[in-house]
Amino acid sequence: MTVISIDDKAATVTVSDEKGSRVLPLASPEAFSLVSRAWLRAGWDVKYVYGFSWLGRPVIQLPEDMIRIQEVIHALRPDVVLETGVAHGGSLVFYASVMKVMGVGRVVGVDIEIRPHNRRAIEEHPLKPLITLIEGSSVAPATVAAVKAQIKPGERVLVILDSNHTKAHVLAELDAYAPLVSVGSYAVACDGIMAQVAGGPRTKPEWATDNPTEAAKEFAATHPEFRLEEPPFPFNEGLVTERVTYWPGAFLKRVR
Ligand SMILES: C[S@@+](CC[C@H](N)C(=O)[O-])C[C@H]1O[C@@H](n2cnc3c(N)ncnc32)[C@H](O)[C@@H]1O
């Protein structure tokens, strides 16, 4: 158990953990990491990520993760971003907007239930020409077949898994969709934050081990063509080298 206390006047963080107690300058990457972790937990408890939209559609993501995945999309220039878990469509619209500006690619979104008002709003969105919606469980054979039918041989594909976040479901999604991922691209298992926030409001105790990060870890251990690898920061003149994220250990890079 780690306990931190912040003295913002002295600009220090006191941390007590199994190694003992020590005082860190607030202006240190270690203090930033500890404070970020506490901020993520507080954000979970107050539903911080349920307060953003992108070009008119609610998007349920930590803004930090959106910036980072934008960097990945920009570097990869995928032909297709496949996302499971559409909800209001904000993340699909976000990826589509990035791809529209880049002049390359389109997005395919899968959800077990696309509510009529969400479908209507997505279909009326100016970015709709870049968006294909598929309704059905992401692991149902008919859905997997419908997704595969959207992708042409040789296309560069990035897969983002943001639907049901149990380990079993994410593993089943990885079995279905990881083969579509191009070499050099990623399958991204979103929302492994569940392990860090277990015990908080709207959580279950089993989230400590039943989460997407565990699925990604297990998948990497059994699929040598993938390894867990953080995408590089394309720009970094600061001291922070790790993502502040809801997606810890999420990036499965296809290496062959
Ligand atoms: C966290 S939300 C997605 C958020 C969205 N990607 C965004 O950033 O705004 C999860 C979505 O997954 C969908 N979902 C749950 N189980 C699913 C399944 N088995 N197959 C496909 N979608 C599923 C839910 O209906 C819900 O809309």
Quick overview:
With 256 residues, the protein is α/β, with parallel strands linked by helices. Helices cover 34% and strands 21% of the residues.
How does this structure look, described?
This protein is an alpha/beta fold and 256 residues long. It has 2 domains: 3-46, no CATH class; 53-254, Vaccinia Virus protein VP39 (Rossmann fold). The protein is built from 8 helices and 12 strands. The chain has a 7-stranded mixed sheet with strand order 8-7-6-9-10-12-11, with helices on both faces. It has a 3-stranded antiparallel sheet with strand order 1-2-3, covered by helices on one side. A two-stranded antiparallel ribbon has the order 4-5. A hairpin with a 4-residue loop joins strand 1 and strand 2. The longest helix has 17 residues, at 29-45. The mean pLDDT is 98. The structure holds S-adenosylmethionine.
